[in-house]
Specification:
This protein is mainly alpha-helical. 51% of the residues lie in helices and 10% in strands. The chain has one domain (2-190). The chain contains seven helices and four strands, in the order H-E-E-H-H-E-H-E-H-H-H.
Length: 193
């Protein structure tokens, strides 16, 4: 029952979010194209529930050659990020297209952050219990996004795992709303709004 209610809330909130923010999508896309060559959107394969791959959509914040040498952990103040990309990441506006992923049922508003298979395989070798996080749909926010390190390397990513498993074990409509509220509060507090 919790999962059905959460799915209903995901649909409702993502539709409202898309309708309210869609004019900004156009402006952001134009700004990205004016700043640098390449697409405005960044599409990357990530793992969803039960490790089923899906294409996650974000606004592009990095140079086109960001991973010319292969997969690299993203980090805070990453030198591969464009000037506009820093603003988009700090304001979380780069995440807006993921409302479409929520509507499509790839992810939820709340859950472990979706990860690439390359990194998931590395982390599962370090901690076999890592794959438990795939028993629930990934999300935009969660305990790990609020209280764990950024996740710029394997060690930081493994520090996120107990928080991801905490959400899995306590999955409920109450925890869903609580994490959305805490995220909005933390975001507005850290942005000075």
């Amino acid at each position: 029952m919790n999962l059905l209610i959460i799915r209903g809330l995901d649909i409702l909130l993502s539709v409202i979010g898309i309708l309210i923010t869609s004019p900004f999508w156009i402006l952001i896309a134009i700004a990205i194209r004016l700043e640098s060559k390449g697409p405005a959107f960044f599409v990357q394969e990530r793992l969803g529930i039960n490790q089923i791959p899906f294409n996650m959509i974000k606004f592009r914040t990095m140079r086109l050659d960001a991973e010319s040498g292969g997969p690299v952990w993203s980090k805070q103040n990453d030198p591969r990020i464009t000037r506009l990309g820093f603003f988009l990441r700090k304001s979380r506006l780069d995440e807006l297209p993921q409302l479409w992923n929520i509507l499509k049922n790839d992810i939820s508003f709340v859950g472990p952050r979706p990860i690439r298979k390359h990194f998931a395989d590395l982390l599962a070798k370090e901690a076999p219990e890592y794959n438990q996080r795939f028993l629930v749909k990934p999300g935009l926010t969660g305990w790990a996004q609020l209280y764990a390190p950024y996740g710029a390397d394997t060690e930081d990513q493994l520090k996120k795992l107990p928080y991801d498993l905490r959400y899995l074990k306590g999955l409920s409509v109450f925890s869903y709303f609580k994490l959305i509220f805490l995220t909005l509060f933390k975001f507005s507090d850290s942005s000075g709004v």
